[in-house]
Amino acid sequence: MSAPIYLDHNATTPIAPEALDAMLPFFREHYGNPNSEHAYGWAADEAVKLSRKRVANALGCDGRGLTFTSGASESISLALRGAASVYGGRKHRILTVATEHKAVLTTCQSLEHDGFEVTLLPVDADGLLDLEALRAAIDDKTLIVSVMWANNETGVVQPIRPIAEIAHEAGAFMMSDATQAVGKVPVHADAAGVDLLAVSAHKFYGPKGVGALFVRRRSPRVRLQPQIAGGEHQGGMRAGTLNVPGIVGMGVAAELAAKNLEADALRMEGLRDRFEAGLREAVPNVRVNAENAPRLPNTSSVIFDGIRSGKLLSTLREVAASTGAACQSRVQKPSHVLTAMGLTPEESFSTVRFSLGRYTTEEEVDRAVQHVADAVANTRQRRAA
Ligand code: PLP
């Protein structure tokens, strides 16, 4: 059997060949520690500086505010816990959204144990944050408003700039988990007024295990307590020898993501629409979640009425997709994202997330539709028998 068609790019992406090629010399020849004062160290340090510039350009922010991390989970933890440590004495409230990734929700839960008051704001049936609920909840004791740029399960894109304006009017910092947005929709931290921005390279064709946190340095200046103690790396923000090959790969991937953004988005949207139209034609009783909301061009969250998505995916060997978030896919609980949008547990258990990517072809999309249609028909037949 040939390799399954990969429609799970929100879980992770294959590395771009350009990023991998750029990384290899930093394993072989330029293996120096960027903190070392000799030619090996200087070469590594130069490469990190270049990556910082590339990532900052791609994210529309000041590179001096970037800290390289091991990925978005760490960036989120550093942002929330780091700010809580510095400002917790004065401000004890955090506002976030019911549909956030577990990286945010679990970190917030742990801060609740430390005495913070966390409010989970509701979303409407399209998965969009209710701005009135935000206005009603925010006050001068609110330290951070944390709203993801785009949702990993449904692809719903939040109105980040208006949210940041509401946060700033109340004197709160605006944070956004932009992990799923980079390379799919424009992400510009300065233009959107985001003070803390978390990203991860492996979601935009960079390597796994490397990410970044942008921290605004002025207007407003955000101060964070480092969460990993040790040497004075990265201005003291995060101790630990830098992952130079990973950072180099991230830089190239970020530059490519920015350069190809429009073309990639248009192509993916065309393929996604073709995929959804194909499914509607070939499969009875399918619905697309958040169909009318602003959503990522690559993501299709589809309900197959009356079918358990876990069962469907286990018979669908030819297509690699997901029942929800990759880190949640073994959990037998309805998706917190879909239930927050008002779906029943049954509907949530019948949902499959398909996420297309830069290298997905029209031919793959057409074959995937056929395989899904066959698998659904077989599953429904077996149920009826
Ligand atoms: N936030 C979102 C929206 C995600 O989709 C993910 C990954 O699934 C993360 C955070 C965590 O990213 P990482 O794997 O880099 O820790």
Describe the structure.
With 385 residues, this protein is α/β, with parallel strands linked by helices. It has two domains: 5-13 and 261-384, Alpha-Beta Complex (Aspartate Aminotransferase, domain 1); 17-259, Type I PLP-dependent aspartate aminotransferase-like (Major domain) (Aspartate Aminotransferase, domain 2), CATH 3.40.640.10. It is 42% helix and 14% strand. The protein is built from 13 helices and twelve strands. The chain has helices at 17-23, 25-28, 39-59, 72-87, 102-113, 131-137, 160-169, 189-192, 244-282, 309-315, 336-340, 345-349, 362-384, and strands at residues 5-6, 66-69, 93-97, 117-121, 142-146, 173-177, 196-200, 211-215, 286-288, 299-304, 319-320, 351-355. The protein has a seven-stranded mixed β-sheet with strand order 2-8-7-6-5-3-4, sandwiched between helices. Helix 3 packs parallel to helix 9, helix 4 runs parallel beside helix 5 and helix 9 crosses helix 13 (362-384). The longest helix is centred in the C-terminal third of the chain and has 39 residues, at 244-282. The protein is globular and about 70 Å long. Pyridoxal-5'-phosphate binds at residues 71-73, 101, 103, 148, 152, 177, 179-180, 200, 211, 326-327.
For this entry, give a set of tags.
385 residues, alpha/beta, Aspartate Aminotransferase, domain 1, Aspartate Aminotransferase, domain 2, 2 domains, 7-stranded mixed β-sheet, 3-stranded antiparallel β-sheet, 13 helices, 42% helix, 14% strand, binds pyridoxal-5'-phosphate
